[in-house]
Protein backbone atom coordinates (compact mmCIF):
# COMPACT_ATOMS: atom_id res chain seq x y z
CA UNK A 1 0.00 0.00 0.00
CA UNK A 2 1.40 3.38 -1.02
CA UNK A 3 2.26 5.79 1.76
CA UNK A 4 0.95 9.34 1.71
CA UNK A 5 4.16 10.79 3.15
CA UNK A 6 7.25 12.51 1.85
CA UNK A 7 10.56 10.93 2.86
CA UNK A 8 13.74 12.89 3.48
CA UNK A 9 17.18 11.34 3.82
CA UNK A 10 19.69 13.45 5.71
CA UNK A 11 22.71 11.50 4.56
CA UNK A 12 22.50 9.36 1.44
CA UNK A 13 24.94 6.53 2.07
CA UNK A 14 24.54 2.80 1.56
CA UNK A 15 21.84 2.25 4.19
CA UNK A 16 19.80 5.21 2.96
CA UNK A 17 20.11 3.87 -0.57
CA UNK A 18 18.98 0.41 0.54
CA UNK A 19 15.94 1.86 2.30
CA UNK A 20 15.02 4.05 -0.65
CA UNK A 21 15.34 1.22 -3.17
CA UNK A 22 13.37 -1.12 -0.94
CA UNK A 23 10.53 1.34 -0.45
CA UNK A 24 10.28 1.96 -4.18
CA UNK A 25 10.49 -1.74 -5.05
CA UNK A 26 7.58 -2.53 -2.73
CA UNK A 27 5.49 0.36 -4.04
CA UNK A 28 5.44 2.11 -0.66
CA UNK A 29 6.59 5.40 -2.11
CA UNK A 30 7.88 6.71 -5.42
CA UNK A 31 11.21 8.40 -5.98
CA UNK A 32 9.39 11.65 -6.73
CA UNK A 33 8.35 11.85 -3.05
CA UNK A 34 11.89 11.40 -1.76
CA UNK A 35 14.38 14.13 -0.90
CA UNK A 36 17.98 13.84 0.15
CA UNK A 37 21.17 15.62 1.09
CA UNK A 38 24.76 14.43 1.27
CA UNK A 39 28.16 16.12 1.18
CA UNK A 40 29.14 13.81 -1.68
CA UNK A 41 27.62 15.03 -4.98
CA UNK A 42 27.88 11.52 -6.42
CA UNK A 43 25.50 10.22 -3.76
CA UNK A 44 23.07 13.05 -4.46
CA UNK A 45 23.17 12.28 -8.18
CA UNK A 46 22.55 8.59 -7.49
CA UNK A 47 19.29 9.51 -5.74
CA UNK A 48 18.39 11.91 -8.55
CA UNK A 49 18.68 8.95 -10.95
CA UNK A 50 15.48 7.38 -9.65
CA UNK A 51 13.52 10.61 -9.45
CA UNK A 52 14.45 11.84 -5.99
CA UNK A 53 15.15 15.52 -5.44
CA UNK A 54 18.60 16.16 -3.96
CA UNK A 55 19.38 19.34 -2.04
CA UNK A 56 22.70 20.77 -0.95
CA UNK A 57 20.95 22.18 2.12
CA UNK A 58 19.73 19.95 4.94
CA UNK A 59 17.15 22.61 5.76
CA UNK A 60 15.52 22.20 2.35
CA UNK A 61 15.20 18.45 2.88
CA UNK A 62 13.44 19.04 6.19
CA UNK A 63 11.08 21.65 4.77
CA UNK A 64 9.94 19.26 2.04
CA UNK A 65 9.61 16.07 4.10
CA UNK A 66 7.30 14.45 6.65
CA UNK A 67 9.59 11.56 7.65
CA UNK A 68 13.27 12.31 8.19
CA UNK A 69 15.87 9.55 8.14
CA UNK A 70 19.00 10.57 10.04
CA UNK A 71 21.55 8.56 8.09
CA UNK A 72 24.83 10.34 8.79
CA UNK A 73 27.76 9.00 10.80
CA UNK A 74 27.06 8.99 14.55
CA UNK A 75 29.57 11.74 15.31
CA UNK A 76 27.68 14.12 13.02
CA UNK A 77 24.15 13.52 14.32
CA UNK A 78 24.08 16.17 17.06
CA UNK A 79 25.43 18.88 14.76
CA UNK A 80 22.96 17.92 12.01
CA UNK A 81 19.88 17.95 14.25
CA UNK A 82 20.96 21.19 15.89
CA UNK A 83 21.29 22.74 12.42
CA UNK A 84 17.79 21.72 11.26
CA UNK A 85 16.03 22.21 14.60
CA UNK A 86 14.67 25.67 13.64
CA UNK A 87 12.63 24.15 10.77
CA UNK A 88 11.49 20.96 12.50
CA UNK A 89 7.71 20.75 12.80
CA UNK A 90 5.30 18.63 14.79
CA UNK A 91 4.48 16.75 11.57
CA UNK A 92 8.01 15.35 11.37
CA UNK A 93 8.79 11.81 12.42
CA UNK A 94 12.55 11.65 12.96
CA UNK A 95 14.02 8.19 12.35
CA UNK A 96 17.64 7.81 13.38
CA UNK A 97 19.63 4.84 12.07
CA UNK A 98 22.88 6.14 13.57
CA UNK A 99 24.44 3.44 15.73
CA UNK A 100 25.08 4.32 19.36
CA UNK A 101 23.21 7.65 19.41
CA UNK A 102 20.72 7.39 22.26
CA UNK A 103 17.17 8.70 22.31
CA UNK A 104 18.16 11.25 24.96
CA UNK A 105 20.91 12.61 22.71
CA UNK A 106 18.53 12.78 19.75
CA UNK A 107 15.90 14.66 21.75
CA UNK A 108 18.53 17.01 23.21
CA UNK A 109 19.54 17.98 19.69
CA UNK A 110 16.11 17.99 18.00
CA UNK A 111 14.15 19.55 20.86
CA UNK A 112 11.79 18.25 23.56
CA UNK A 113 8.79 18.25 21.24
CA UNK A 114 10.46 16.13 18.54
CA UNK A 115 8.96 12.78 17.61
CA UNK A 116 12.00 10.51 17.59
CA UNK A 117 12.31 6.85 16.67
CA UNK A 118 15.68 5.17 17.02
CA UNK A 119 16.18 2.19 14.70
CA UNK A 120 18.96 -0.38 14.47
CA UNK A 121 18.77 -1.95 10.98
CA UNK A 122 21.33 -4.13 9.24
CA UNK A 123 22.83 -4.29 5.76
CA UNK A 124 20.55 -7.03 4.31
CA UNK A 125 18.16 -4.11 3.98
CA UNK A 126 19.88 -3.82 0.59
CA UNK A 127 18.16 -7.03 -0.56
CA UNK A 128 14.88 -6.45 1.27
CA UNK A 129 15.71 -8.69 4.24
CA UNK A 130 16.73 -6.42 7.09
CA UNK A 131 16.45 -7.55 10.70
CA UNK A 132 15.79 -4.34 12.65
CA UNK A 133 14.57 -3.12 16.02
CA UNK A 134 13.26 0.25 17.17
CA UNK A 135 12.43 2.24 20.27
CA UNK A 136 10.45 5.47 20.66
CA UNK A 137 11.52 8.75 22.23
CA UNK A 138 10.45 12.33 22.72
CA UNK A 139 6.85 12.86 21.61
CA UNK A 140 6.77 9.78 19.36
CA UNK A 141 3.61 7.74 19.81
CA UNK A 142 1.86 4.65 18.48
CA UNK A 143 1.21 6.31 15.11
CA UNK A 144 4.93 6.94 14.65
CA UNK A 145 5.67 3.35 15.63
CA UNK A 146 3.17 2.06 13.07
CA UNK A 147 4.59 4.36 10.39
CA UNK A 148 8.15 3.18 10.97
CA UNK A 149 6.97 -0.43 11.06
CA UNK A 150 5.33 0.01 7.66
CA UNK A 151 8.49 1.53 6.22
CA UNK A 152 10.86 -1.15 7.50
CA UNK A 153 8.56 -4.07 6.78
CA UNK A 154 8.99 -3.08 3.15
CA UNK A 155 12.63 -4.13 3.49
CA UNK A 156 12.46 -6.94 6.05
CA UNK A 157 11.34 -7.31 9.66
CA UNK A 158 11.36 -4.88 12.60
CA UNK A 159 10.60 -5.32 16.29
CA UNK A 160 9.95 -2.82 19.07
CA UNK A 161 12.21 -3.16 22.13
CA UNK A 162 13.27 -1.13 25.15
CA UNK A 163 16.20 1.10 24.32
CA UNK A 164 18.43 -0.74 26.80
CA UNK A 165 18.18 -3.78 24.49
CA UNK A 166 19.32 -1.99 21.32
CA UNK A 167 22.96 -2.72 22.12
CA UNK A 168 22.13 -6.43 22.11
CA UNK A 169 20.29 -5.94 18.81
CA UNK A 170 23.45 -4.29 17.49
CA UNK A 171 25.58 -7.19 18.66
CA UNK A 172 23.27 -9.80 17.16
CA UNK A 173 21.56 -8.57 13.99
CA UNK A 174 23.50 -5.35 13.43
CA UNK A 175 26.87 -7.09 13.40
CA UNK A 176 25.49 -10.53 12.59
CA UNK A 177 25.74 -10.31 8.79
CA UNK A 178 29.53 -10.18 9.14
CA UNK A 179 29.46 -13.39 11.16
CA UNK A 180 27.24 -15.06 8.58
CA UNK A 181 29.41 -13.87 5.68
CA UNK A 182 32.41 -15.41 7.42
CA UNK A 183 30.46 -18.66 7.85
CA UNK A 184 29.49 -18.72 4.16
CA UNK A 185 33.09 -18.07 3.17
CA UNK A 186 34.34 -20.83 5.46
CA UNK A 187 31.76 -23.35 4.21
CA UNK A 188 32.71 -22.52 0.63
CA UNK A 189 36.41 -22.94 1.47
CA UNK A 190 35.58 -26.34 2.92
CA UNK A 191 33.80 -27.26 -0.29
CA UNK A 192 36.82 -26.16 -2.33
CA UNK A 193 39.14 -28.21 -0.11
CA UNK A 194 36.87 -31.20 -0.69
CA UNK A 195 37.17 -30.71 -4.45
CA UNK A 196 34.28 -28.46 -5.52
CA UNK A 197 34.83 -25.58 -7.95
CA UNK A 198 34.86 -22.25 -6.10
CA UNK A 199 31.79 -20.83 -7.85
CA UNK A 200 29.67 -23.89 -7.09
CA UNK A 201 30.94 -24.16 -3.51
CA UNK A 202 30.06 -20.53 -2.75
CA UNK A 203 26.62 -20.82 -4.32
CA UNK A 204 25.86 -24.01 -2.39
CA UNK A 205 27.06 -22.46 0.87
CA UNK A 206 24.99 -19.29 0.45
CA UNK A 207 21.86 -21.19 -0.63
CA UNK A 208 22.27 -23.56 2.31
CA UNK A 209 22.33 -20.65 4.76
CA UNK A 210 19.33 -19.04 3.04
CA UNK A 211 17.29 -22.23 3.04
CA UNK A 212 18.17 -23.08 6.63
CA UNK A 213 17.17 -19.62 7.83
CA UNK A 214 13.83 -19.93 6.01
CA UNK A 215 13.19 -23.26 7.73
CA UNK A 216 13.71 -21.63 11.15
CA UNK A 217 11.36 -18.76 10.32
CA UNK A 218 8.66 -20.71 8.49
CA UNK A 219 8.46 -23.91 10.55
CA UNK A 220 8.71 -22.21 13.93
CA UNK A 221 10.74 -25.18 15.18
CA UNK A 222 13.69 -24.79 17.52
CA UNK A 223 16.99 -24.72 15.60
CA UNK A 224 18.19 -27.65 17.69
CA UNK A 225 15.23 -29.73 16.56
CA UNK A 226 15.91 -28.84 12.93
CA UNK A 227 19.56 -29.80 13.42
CA UNK A 228 18.49 -33.17 14.83
CA UNK A 229 16.41 -33.79 11.69
CA UNK A 230 19.62 -33.70 9.64
CA UNK A 231 21.91 -35.68 11.96
CA UNK A 232 21.31 -39.37 11.29
CA UNK A 233 22.91 -41.88 13.72
CA UNK A 234 26.49 -42.54 12.70
CA UNK A 235 26.06 -40.41 9.58
CA UNK A 236 28.02 -37.69 7.83
CA UNK A 237 26.36 -34.71 9.51
CA UNK A 238 26.98 -35.80 13.10
CA UNK A 239 30.64 -36.29 12.18
CA UNK A 240 30.76 -32.67 11.00
CA UNK A 241 28.80 -31.41 14.01
CA UNK A 242 31.29 -33.17 16.30
CA UNK A 243 34.15 -31.23 14.69
CA UNK A 244 32.26 -27.93 15.14
CA UNK A 245 31.66 -28.72 18.80
CA UNK A 246 35.33 -29.58 19.33
CA UNK A 247 36.26 -26.21 17.78
CA UNK A 248 33.88 -24.33 20.09
CA UNK A 249 31.91 -22.78 17.25
CA UNK A 250 28.78 -22.21 19.34
CA UNK A 251 30.71 -20.50 22.11
CA UNK A 252 32.56 -18.39 19.54
CA UNK A 253 29.30 -17.08 18.03
CA UNK A 254 27.91 -16.33 21.49
CA UNK A 255 31.11 -14.51 22.45
CA UNK A 256 31.02 -12.49 19.22
CA UNK A 257 27.49 -11.25 19.97
CA UNK A 258 28.38 -10.37 23.57
CA UNK A 259 31.61 -8.59 22.53
CA UNK A 260 29.78 -6.53 19.92
CA UNK A 261 27.03 -5.75 22.45
CA UNK A 262 29.57 -4.55 24.99
CA UNK A 263 31.22 -2.36 22.37
CA UNK A 264 27.83 -0.90 21.39
CA UNK A 265 27.20 0.00 25.04
CA UNK A 266 30.61 1.66 25.22
CA UNK A 267 29.90 3.76 22.13
CA UNK A 268 26.48 4.80 23.45
CA UNK A 269 28.01 6.10 26.67
CA UNK A 270 30.68 8.21 24.95
From TrEMBL:
The protein, known as: Pyrroline-5-carboxylate reductase
Enzyme class label: oxidoreductase
Keywords carried by this UniProt record: Amino-acid biosynthesis, Cytoplasm, NADP, Oxidoreductase, Proline biosynthesis
Entry binding sites for NADPH: 58
Residue ranges of every copy of the Pyrroline-5-carboxylate reductase catalytic N-terminal domain listed in the record: 6-100
UniProt source species: Haematococcus lacustris (Green alga)
Gene3D superfamilies xrefs: NAD(P)-binding Rossmann-like Domain, ProC C-terminal domain-like
Catalytic activity as recorded in UniProt: L-proline + NAD(+) = (S)-1-pyrroline-5-carboxylate + NADH + 2 H(+); L-proline + NADP(+) = (S)-1-pyrroline-5-carboxylate + NADPH + 2 H(+)
Principal localisation: cytoplasm
Domain Pyrroline-5-carboxylate reductase dimerisation stretches: 163-267
Subcellular location per the Swiss-Prot or TrEMBL entry: Cytoplasm
InterPro entries for this protein: 6-PGluconate_DH-like_C_sf, NAD(P)-bd_dom_sf, P5C_Rdtase_cat_N, P5CR-like_CS, P5CR_dimer, Pyrroline-COOH_reductase
Coiled-coil region(s): none
GO biological process: L-proline biosynthetic process
Entry annotated with the keyword Oxidoreductase: yes
One protein family per Pfam: F420_oxidored
Pathway: Amino-acid biosynthesis; L-proline biosynthesis; L-proline from L-glutamate 5-semialdehyde: step 1/1
Similarity comment text for this entry: Belongs to the pyrroline-5-carboxylate reductase family.
GO terms, molecular function: pyrroline-5-carboxylate reductase activity
